[in-house]
Amino acid sequence: MKKENRTHILLRYILVIGFILIFAGIIAYQSFDNTVLSANKWNEKAMSELSRVVEISPERGNILSNNGQILATNLSFYHVRIDYRSERFLEGRYILALDSLADSLALHFPVRTRQEWLARLKKPLEKPREKRPRAYKILSNISYSDWLLLRTFPFFSIRNPNKNGLTKERVNRRVKPYGAMASRSVGGVGIDSVTGETHGISGLERALDSLLYGKPGIAKKVPLTKDIVNWTDVPPVAGYDIHTTIDIDMQDIVENELNNVLTMCGAEWGVAVLMEVSTGNIKAISNLERNNTTGEYIEGMNRAVLGYEPGSVVKTLSMMIALEDGIVKNVDDVITTGHAFAYAGGRPITDSHSAPSMPVKEVIERSSNIGMAKIITSRYGENPGAFYTRLKELGFLSPMNTGIAGERPPRIDSVANNRGGRIALSRMCYGYTTEIPPLYTLSIYNAIANDGVYVKPRLVDRLRSETIDSVLPITYMGTGKACSPRTAQLMRDMLTQVVWGEHGTGKMLRSDRVKIAGKTGTCYIIENGAYNTGKKRLAFCGFFPAEKPLYSCVVLTCRPTQNAFGAASTSGTVLKNIALKMYSRGMLNNSSDYHPEEPKVTKPTLYASTPGGKVEHLRQGLDFKGYRYFAPKDKGAGMPNVVGCSLRDAINTLENAGVDVKFHGSGYVVAQSISPGVAFAPGTKITLQLAQ
What we know:
Elements: H1 2-37, H2 39-50, E1 53-56, E2 63-64, E3 70-82, H3 91-108, H4 114-122, E4 136-142, H5 144-150, H6 161-164, E5 166-175, H7 183-186, E6 189-191, E7 198-200, H8 203-207, H9 209-213, E8 217-223, E9 228-234, E10 241-244, H10 248-265, E11 269-276, E12 282-290, E13 297-299, H11 315-324, E14 334-338, E15 355-359, H12 362-366, H13 369-380, H14 384-394, H15 421-428, H16 438-449, E16 453-455, E17 460-464, E18 469-471, E19 476-481, H17 485-500, E20 517-527, E21 530-544, E22 551-558, H18 568-584, E23 605-608, H19 614-622, E24 626-629, H20 647-656, E25 660-664, E26 668-672, E27 685-691
Parallel strand pairs: 2-10, 23-24, 25-27
Antiparallel strand pairs: 1-8, 2-3, 3-4, 3-5, 6-7, 8-9, 10-17, 11-12, 11-22, 12-13, 14-15, 16-19, 17-18, 20-21, 21-22, 26-27
Helix pairs in contact: 3-4, 10-18, 11-13, 11-17, 13-15
């Protein structure tokens, strides 16, 4: 019996030892194979892994306003997920915390109600543990501060992620803090489906993508004790920060005034561009179009750089060339216009404001198609191609390279040849048979306001990085000279008469506060190969103040359907309101307490609401220059009390109350024609008396 047991035990030992020897042999063989027989194969795999290069994406540069406010930047957001199969997931505590967790989520993240959150948090528990999700998304695109808040919620406050399964996935997003403000001009970005890189797809983001994107870095695989990790070999270089010429305050004014007029007249879309005369800096640009679902106006296609038949605003360009080329030698010469002008066998040209004859200087004021066509064809009628050459030499047909994606130069091909170009020339000179982007039209008016100096409109004036701070110089169209100072002055006088002259088409745009000069333009829209006289694009282009221009502006309104249907009452009103709002905010060097002829004040002035007494004692003790007394404002109903206010504050207060303001003198308000507290109707006129 003992012998049999010993035999069985020995047999078992032999089997166990045999298995151990076989297993050890396999291990020894595999080790020998890996290190000797197949060493080359494994070395190749190791080298291929270690030689693999990973590209590190650079940080995209910011887009900034003229004073450094951020228009587009990169921010980190997080997707939050729960791993229901994490190693030490505390399911019991999770179930107990569900009600309070749903309450917290519904309160701070109201994308779902409490019941909806509760149902979503319970759903994964309905499956067997081995089939539960490992990356169950509960929140998307939350900020880091929201993530920290989330970590204070019941159950999520557990610090060990293995116990609560909470994970976050970081994603970078391009954010525009000012929302739709100049959104089309700033542009957008998208992810390349092939490379996975983020590049600009519209606006400045696209036009300046090579500068904003930066240079990718390189990371190589490096073997460490426990793992092979990425090791940065060449660090990425962040993209440039692009400083635009956009002024946030002016942009706000332009967008609001354009939106107000579009809403009033029910237009399909509108565009407005505000530019600084001396530099060509685009201070504001707005493109709004009607949302047919909501009826509201939203940022739309960037039409400032797209070509349209401009209408009569192009007469300014034609007249400028006529003066500069000597076609018109004396603006007082009388030209016969009549009621129609048939040229080269084409359809007769007519005027909306016809007259038998007029001085040349009134052609712009009266917006005479006949007068303009007669002047231009008298020189270029037999050789329309020479007019095309003249525009090309001027620089008017050259790319502006403003930085706005989608920019197109004017299309004047119809007058480039002499065959058939004569009729086209007679129409083109007053705004038809051609396509000119509003920004190109504005550039001519800006040159006239700038004494003939033809600066390029631009949206970028500075590039910055960690090592470079580059200010971009002002550049010019063509030779940099659109016309002589004398021609520019004559044109400014003509454009001023459009608003202030007896026969001007823009008389309704007069204002005692800001003198506006400019030109109206109306163009019918082509549908099915013919002009639809029921649909119009209405333009106004000009500059202000007329006596010493600081800013030029172009506005285009498409197809108004109610209340206002003229170029002056729509587009012209936008420009007028922009000028007045800038005046009221002191943006036109018009501050009522600013007097450049006075010596500079070296001591501060004490401002007080009551005169004499302690105020006078304080003035003497601190050696202040003096004090100004402001009468307390009446906050009750009726006419506001603005006595003691500066002109700017008074205008803001009264206009917000719906009062039409006129004033005399300069300095501070010392009297108002309607007493404070008196009841008044909207539109009531009040006169303010100012004194130092």
